[in-house]
Design goal:
Layout (H helix, E strand, L loop, with lengths): L1 H17 L2 E5 L3 E2 L6 H15 L4 E3 L2 H10 L10 H11 L3 E10 L2 E10 L5 E9 L2 H16 L7 E3 L4 H15 L6 H36 L11 E5 L2 E5 L1 H34 L1 H18 L9 E9 L4 E9 L1
Helix pairs in contact: 2-5, 3-4, 6-9, 7-8, 7-9
Length: 328
Amino acid sequence: MRKCFIICIMAFTVCSISAQTRIAILPFSAGENVVKSDMSYLTEEFTLEMVSSDKYIVLERVELKKAMKELQLQNSDEFDETQAAEVGKLAGAEQVFFGSVYLMAGQYNVSVRCVDIRTGAITFAKKGISSDEKTLVAVCKKMALQIVSGDTSSSTVKIELTAKERKVKEYYLDWKQGISATNKQDMSMLFKRNLACGITLASVGVAHLLAGIIVTSVMCSPIFPYERHVSSHYYNGIEYVDDSYYKTEYDFSMLFIIIGCTVGVQLLVSSAIITPLCALPFAKAKHVKSIYEKSTGDKLLAFMHRASFGGGYDWENKEVTVAMAIRL
């Protein structure tokens, strides 16, 4: 029994590994007016996104260098599909990715192509446009994420962040939090944290508002009407009015009113201060969600795509049934 279990595990592992595609990623080439030293970093970021997927097995750079050295392409700045196919074939890859970056009209244009080793033809190509160097890496990551998800369409990849979103990304995400805008796990956690903070502040503000209204209306109402406690009696034909009870209970009423006004005003003031503060984490959560979705083209929190409801009355059993189906 144990041997059968081990054999099944090994068979499953072999099948899962064989289902992955062996790919090689060549260094990106730089066009005119593009810093060539930045291409190694760009290639590394693109490679990291491809490695994080279970769809591909990325070959080591050592194997690529050996193949490029054998073909005498180690000093080459650009590759065509024929050269890329030869490098990939020697390295033992099934597909080869190579890209190039050009600066045209003040914009960075990056293109990534995929070559099939068996046919030597380009199976697909993706193009990205970036307005500056800071978003160029994010564009490459977005292209890699689309490729991993199976989106090989020829649509142009862009990251069109607003001025506020760029400020949040540069100051809050990159510098303060140290979080990449394409990291779904960290961005999702950051979104939920800000959303929970906003909901908490809004709940506290509403609770203070209701408590202030209740305390003010109850404590400031006349609790001891003096008419009920004023008494009079006659002595030798002269009427004497005893208002000592009224005076004592009137003092207690004024004390309750003062306390009620003080506590109620404090609750109302704190509500007026706390409630608007919930807009800050809500706005930050919105920016985090928008930045991630624009940077990757993926949904940050796709809880429910479609829900269907059904049910009816079972006449035989005399029961009412209600059904709901949710596709996540």
